[in-house]
């Protein structure tokens, strides 16, 4: 049965309430932006800055993390409402998630929410030093550096912690790879980075859903829509 990402509820007082799930749309946006950044890189004629290419890479990164946040938030919200979508979790897990969401929503980081849900469901948590958790954490680190960006002086040859952790995971920006620009934000923001980010976040969400026994609603929706 096709997945409907909008839910409509009619109450006893004949009022109508609706809820929209956004995770699949964030995923589609991330996939689309990553694809467009790759297409633009295929046209590279020489070194220089391409604002269109940069915008697609940044969009892919932001949308990938927004997708990751939306997936876990939607499940916690469904637990609060005892939605049929989370029936596979069982009553005890659903109650624990609902109680935690009501008291600790703002204090929990995105990946903490993923781990906590697994703990409540008595499922194996992700290894923090292993993938997909480690890569997803790095994607969030890049997103945070973009959204809370502070210009700094860079010493040539200086290697940052994030650069070390991501070395060799994807090709650098061909527009700027051979220039004197700093690794971040210049060289790292490539189509390879965009594709890696989307894939890393998607793998974590898929693995998490599978461990909990929940359908991959986000994948179902994306498969029904036009190709990103």
UniProtKB/TrEMBL annotation:
Domain of life: Bacteria
Name of this chain's protein: Uncharacterized protein
């Amino acid at each position: 049965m096709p997945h409907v990402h909008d839910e409509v509820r009619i109450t006893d007082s004949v009022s109508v309430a609706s809820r929209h799930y956004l995770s699949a749309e964030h995923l589609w946006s991330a996939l689309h932006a990553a694809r467009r950044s790759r297409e633009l890189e295929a046209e590279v004629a020489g070194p220089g800055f391409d604002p269109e290419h940069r915008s697609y890479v940044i969009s892919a990164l932001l949308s990938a993390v927004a997708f990751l946040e939306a997936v876990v938030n939607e499940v916690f919200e469904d637990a609060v409402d005892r939605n049929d979508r989370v029936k596979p979790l069982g009553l005890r897990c659903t109650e624990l998630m609902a109680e935690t969401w009501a008291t600790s929503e703002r204090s929990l980081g995105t990946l903490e929410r993923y781990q906590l849900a697994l703990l409540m469901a008595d499922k194996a948590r992700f290894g923090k030093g292993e993938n997909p958790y480690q890569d997803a954490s790095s994607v969030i680190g890049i997103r945070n550096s973009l959204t809370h960006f502070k210009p700094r002086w860079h010493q040539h040859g200086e290697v940052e912690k994030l650069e070390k952790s991501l070395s060799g995971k994807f090709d650098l920006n061909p527009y700027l790879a051979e220039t004197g620009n700093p690794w971040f934000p210049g060289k790292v923001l490539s189509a390879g980075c965009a594709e890696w980010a989307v894939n890393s976040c998607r793998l974590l969400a898929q693995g998490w859903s599978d461990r909990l026994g929940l359908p991959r609603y986000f994948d179902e929706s994306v498969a029904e829509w036009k190709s990103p």
